[in-house]
Design brief:
about 220 residues; alpha/beta; Rossmann fold; 2 domains; five-stranded parallel β-sheet; two-stranded antiparallel sheet; 7 strands; about 45% helix
């Protein structure tokens, strides 16, 4: 019997201030880099040549570009590694080096060299929906994510943000046994409708009144 791949453990990483090394300077490497910047990661790109956009970001100090071929020493300060070159030998060496250093590594289009896979992601503010086939069919993951796009308009981000703003007060004011009741009210569609209508003040007032009603 062949090797059965174990089920993967999904997780959301906080990369703020972490050193992310991207090996490669083409369009795929650029996409990896652009996914890291909103997460406030410290990005270093290692490649003899890079795209125009990568070059411009390096000139503005938003990323660091090491204009050279990859060597193991390029991972000295790394905390996570992304590999996206068109040289299979470089990709394999970088993966092996990263794993030897116990660093999580993703190699574009080469699941056997990865210790983690990148899901297809849809974001609406704080709402993140990640679809993964665990490296088996990335295009399928993208197609499924695109189907979710239609069901979550941009207003959903504001809706989630409004709920987040009240979460602290809910925990402080409402007894544990009554919190489920509050969230059932908050998620019954009324607040979302008000947000979609641009009535954020009314939505905020309604949430606060429910908190007061259930407070100790």
């Amino acid at each position: 019997m062949g090797y059965a791949m174990p089920q993967l453990y999904p997780v959301s990483l906080n990369l703020a201030g972490k050193q992310a090394v991207v090996i490669g300077g083409g369009s795929v490497a650029e996409r990896k880099m652009m996914g890291l910047l909103p997460c406030d990661a410290r990005v270093t790109v290692v490649s003899p040549q890079v795209t125009k956009h990568i070059y411009e970001l390096s000139q503005h100090g938003e990323i660091r570009w090491r204009e050279k071929r990859y060597e193991e020493g390029d991972l000295t300060d790394a905390e996570i590694v992304f590999v996206a070159t068109d040289d299979p030998d470089v990709n394999e060496k970088a993966s092996q080096d990263a794993q030897r250093l116990n660093l999580p590594v993703n190699v574009a289009d080469c699941p056997p060299l990865c210790t983690f896979y990148l899901p297809s992601v849809m974001r609406r503010g704080r709402l993140t929906i990640a679809i993964s086939t665990e490296g088996a069919a990335p295009l399928l993951a993208r197609k499924i994510r695109e189907s979710f796009d239609q069901g979550f308009p941009d207003e959903f981000g504001a809706y989630v943000e409004l709920l987040a703003e009240h979460r602290g007060r809910v925990i402080e004011s409402i007894p544990a046994e009554s919190r489920t009741t509050f969230w059932e009210w908050a998620l019954n569609g009324e607040i979302y409708r008000l947000v979609c209508e641009g009535k954020l003040g009314e939505a905020d007032k309604r949430l606060n009144s429910w908190i007061d009603e259930l407070a100790e």
